[in-house]
Amino acid sequence: MKKIVFDIETKNSFAEVGNNISGFEISVVGLYDSERDVYESYFEQDFVNLWPILEQADMLIGFNSNSFDIPILNKYYSGDLTKIKSLDILQEIYQVMDKRTSLDSIAEATLGVNKSGHGLQAIEWWKSQELEKLKNYCLDDVKITKQIYDFTRENNFLLYTKQGEIRKVQIDATNWEKKLETKINLTLPI
Fold this sequence. Notes:
By secondary structure, the protein is an alpha/beta fold. The protein has one domain (about 5-170): Nucleotidyltransferase, domain 5, CATH 3.30.420.10. Helices cover about 40% and strands about 20% of the residues. It has 7 helices and 7 strands. The chain has helices spanning about 15, 45-55, 65-75, 90-95, 105-110, 120-125, 130-155; strands at about 5-10, 25-35, 40, 60, 85-90, 155-160, 165-170. It has a 5-stranded mixed sheet, with helices on both faces. Strands 6-7 form a two-stranded antiparallel sheet. A hairpin with a 2-residue loop joins strand 6 (about 155-160) and strand 7. Helix 5 (about 105-110) packs across helix 7 (about 130-155) and helix 6 (about 120-125) packs antiparallel against helix 7.
């Protein structure tokens, strides 16, 4: 199964666009390709190389990706990325707990690591054209998301912190990799 773990960073914030997802612009996309075992990043001028990778995926994996990353990516794509099977780890947590938690909270409790920054810093790095910092931050989030995915697949639970206390949430990940047939509009001619 070809899995793509991914994350996007944006050029603007909720303070600038409100709750209008279509107002966001992507600064960089980071991904892990399980088939090639590589981490890569793509700026907008490189998206032509990104689309074939996403189109060949059996599953897209992210954190808050179904309601944020994928809809924003779809603005740039000529097909429909929602046709590819996706797993949103935050959505899986919400289905069990009926509340949201942060990637950093899960990473700290489950993996003993913290994120290397936050989204508002990524926007500042974009504005100041500190592209290496931006790319590395995005790829760090992809690495954390992949480790959380792998941990959950192996253990069927995650840990998170709430008010300084580590808590456990049971998540049934046994069917996460069940293969589904995907139909997608390809950007490349056949």
